[in-house]
Amino acid sequence: MAREYNMDRRAYLATIGAGTAAGLAGCTGLTGGGGGNTIRPGTAPGFQPFEFRDGGELVGFDIDLTEAIVAETDYELGEWQTFEFDSLIQALTTDKIDMIAAAMTITDDRDETIDFSDPYYSANQSVIVREDGDFAPSSLDDLSGHPIGAQSGTTGETVIQSELIEPGKLEESNYNSYDNYVLAVEDLQNGNIDAVVVDEPVGETFADQRPVSVAFVYETGEQYGFGLRTDDDDRTDAVNSGLQAVRDNGTYEELRNKWFSG
Ligand code: ARG
């Protein structure tokens, strides 16, 4: 496991809320330069069980899977760096990191700017609501007229924009964009918004841990990939071979069982 500074929850929320590329960047010599034989991974925590803080430590399926994959390659794993989700692509293209491991959906849009590894996980979107509330939507149309939220730059946000705002089913002012899904769900619990659109495995996890529940699933058939620079075929090939190796040797299955109970 990569070394991490301990942060308490408030410090963590302050960091993720402040829009900073969290201060882990550049804390060791390993993080300098984009060349060499290091893969410097970047992620956006607050997305349990894929990436989140547990007592200050960065943990999750993507963290373990990345470490297992890189261990199968000739590359060394650099220190983890954390960003807001919507800053990850820029962090990659400006050489601050070499690989995005953040439950990032492979989309045509993103594929114009970066490359993706082979897919490593499939997901749909879920709509979560307060558990004891009387709002029980069963389709996107039912969200009309309600304040709702998603994390900035995500495919959940894209669903809200393309399926609700653009067709005129939701006022733009009813959409609230958050730096992090944890903040969105806190606003849901507080009653400031009525629903959050989030990847289903993460929606299920919030429902396990907080007084919220999954109202319905909206099928998007998304696939997650690791993000790499378009000119970095060596690392892309290495990550794809490493992914195949951890599938073949049973590690992928083990990690899946570790992080996904259902
Ligand atoms: N899969 C969604 C997307 O690619 C959400 C990913 C959010 N990831 C995160 N680490 N916060 O847009």
Give a brief description.
It is built from 9 helices and 14 strands.
Radius of gyration: 18 Å
The distinct bound ligands, ions and cofactors come out as: arginine
Output the strand order for the largest sheet: 11-10-12-9-13
Order of helices and strands: HEEEEHEEHEHEEEHEHEHEEHH
Helix/strand class = alpha/beta
Strand content: 15-25%
The description of the largest β-sheet is:
5 strands, mixed
Tell how many strands the DSSP assignment holds. Answer: 14
Q: Tell me roughly what share of residues is in helical segments.
A: 25-40%
Kindly report the average pLDDT value. 90
Give a quick set of tags describing it:
262 residues; alpha/beta; D-Maltodextrin-Binding Protein, domain 2; 2 domains; five-stranded mixed β-sheet; three-stranded parallel β-sheet; 9 helices; 32% helix; binds arginine
Question: What features would you describe in this structure?
Answer:
This protein is an alpha/beta fold and 262 residues long. It has 2 domains: 152 residues, D-Maltodextrin-Binding Protein, domain 2 (3-Layer(aba) Sandwich), CATH 3.40.190; 100 residues, 3-Layer(aba) Sandwich (D-Maltodextrin-Binding Protein, domain 2). 32% of the residues lie in helices and 22% in strands. The protein has 9 helices and 14 strands. The strands form 5 sheets. A 5-stranded mixed beta sheet has the order 11-10-12-9-13, with helices on both faces. Strands 6-2-7 form a 3-stranded parallel beta sheet. Strands 1-5 form a two-stranded parallel sheet. A hairpin with a 2-residue loop joins strand 3 and strand 4. The longest helix is centred in the C-terminal third of the chain and has 16 residues. The radius of gyration is 18 Å and the shape is globular. It starts with 8 loop residues before the first helix and ends with a helix. The N terminus is likely disordered. The site of arginine (ARG) has 12 residues, from loops.
